[in-house]
Amino acid sequence: MAPRYYTTPIYYVNGDPHIGHAHTTVMGDILKRLNLMRGDDTFYSTGTDEHGQKNQEAIEKSGMDAEIYLSKLSDRFRELFDRLNIQYDCYIRTTFESHKTVVTKVLAHLHEKALIYKKDYTGLYCVGCEQFKKESDLDGHGNCPDHQRPPIKQTETNYFFKISLFQDWLKKWLMSDDNLIQPLFYRNEVLAMLVEPLEDLCISRPKSRVWLGIELPFDTDYVTYVWFDALLNYITNVGYGISSDFDKWWNNSIHLMAKDIIKTHIIYWPIMLKAIDVAPPSRFRIHGYWVGEGGQKMAKSLGNVIEPNDMIDLVGPDGFRFYLAKSMGGTDAQISKALVLSTYNTDLANNLGNLHSRVVKFVDKRFAGRVPPKTRTFPEDRALQEYVAEKANETVMNCDLISIPNLIATSLEIADRLNLYFNDAAPWKMVKIEEEKERVHSVLYAMLDCLRMLFELLTPVIPETASKALVSLGSKPVGVAAARHTFLPDGLRQHATFGEIVDLFPRIDN
Ligand code: ME8
Predict the structure, then answer these.
(1) What's the structural domain count of the chain?
(2) pTM value > 0.90
(3) Reduced to 3 states, what is the DSSP secondary structure of residue 47?
(4) Would you say the CB of residue 9 lies under 6 angstroms from ligand 1?
(5) Which atom of ligand 1 is least distant from the CA of 233?
(6) 262, 301, 380, 400: which is deepest, by most CB within 10 A?
(7) For this structure, is 441 an active site residue?
(8) Block means of pLDDT (10 residues each) for the chain, length 510 residues?
(9) Same domain for 198 and 322?
(10) 16 CB under 6 A from ligand 1?
(11) Within-domain flag for 107
(12) From 51, 100, 144, 391, the catalytic residue
């Protein structure tokens, strides 16, 4: 039982949660559930990043009390994640006292080690990124490429963390393991950022300008830079400095994120950890960016922004989870209402739902709502069960963030094969012939048993519907406790009584 600690980024609360926030958090949930199926002990954290200039500007714009605003927005993220059936173990808010304690302790420690110093500085600040930018980071028009706005020139006295001391260590560490960063091409992006000498990291903001943050323990005129604060959530969540379980989780940490925040995670964060003598993260798993249909960046002005709650209203939490899981690997993917709807109708209603309904309803009618007993197993039927078991075991064992779409592809391939098998075997013809009775039982049992394995395999992606499907077959939903789940033929009890048979994915005409 290898422990695993999965994290999502913690999200800014300067607006409502959007599709990208839903995506990373659903993927983390799928990975957590897959790990539990593998019998691995898993801890999963997500939450909200509630400090810094960007959030502060949103609060000021809202005219609301800061605490009320932050709670309200953080709750919106949590409500979305609850609607999406996310089984997080920890929902961190950086405004929690437990987190402030960690940030303060780390800052005091680095200050004592003389790794923090004060100086005057002039830089170009992008509030959208919450980062200083170099001229070379900007596009031809002097804009931040991610936010399409020019950064603001800032001259201030601030505290700096001597990250430049760790550059050589960082480079060596990045090259030490090809599995550290996946997809691997993101490592090249990080290495390219390390060609030039690293500038020390500005880790403070004067309170006179930014009041929303954690006060520096060694200078009360300043708050902590939001990224320095936020990154530390990853160790707060697993009890840094207070829990004996800290090493167990931290030594198996896997950070999930999109490609937008690799610099802070793969450059600043490991250095922060190294400086406080904590091991660097074990893995970084990076996905692409959601863009609108046709590849356009999503923007309110283009009218192509997809709201996650609208998608859940449209196709249900499982329909939406399925679309996200199917469509996004390591590079960008497209989303629109029409794409979500057509995937739902094609893959879920017409393929999986229809397959389930045909088989289960047929057996329900002919065998009084029970799994038919086998008196003989025909080799071709057994071969079908073995094929499904093997595919399912292999998929669960090998699934990682960017191969989640393979899980869907394999499931659809299995569903196609089962549909064909059912058509070719045509049990509705055989059932009328007395000599074919044994074969009919064998075929139908195999079909139901394969459906059982198929819905077990899909449980991490569509947990609610897969459970309904498994109950309808007279089987049990896959448990949520860590216990290795092996796919084996003949796991469905003969004579088992069917549960309620529901239309899993009713077609949606729109
Ligand atoms: O960066 N496609 O928060 P954030 C895919 N608070 N994923 C997307 C996406 C898109 N179009 N847009 C956002 C922050 N995401 C910091 C993180 S962590 C210590 C602090 C997802 O609200 C994706 O996971 O801007 C991305 O990395 C994250 O949201 C950024 O969220």
Answers:
(1) 2
(2) yes
(3) strand
(4) yes
(5) 19
(6) 262
(7) no
(8) 93 94 98 94 97 96 98 98 98 98 98 97 89 88 87 93 98 97 96 95 96 98 98 98 96 96 98 98 96 81 85 98 94 94 97 97 95 93 98 95 97 98 95 91 97 98 98 90 86 96 93
(9) no
(10) no
(11) yes
(12) 144
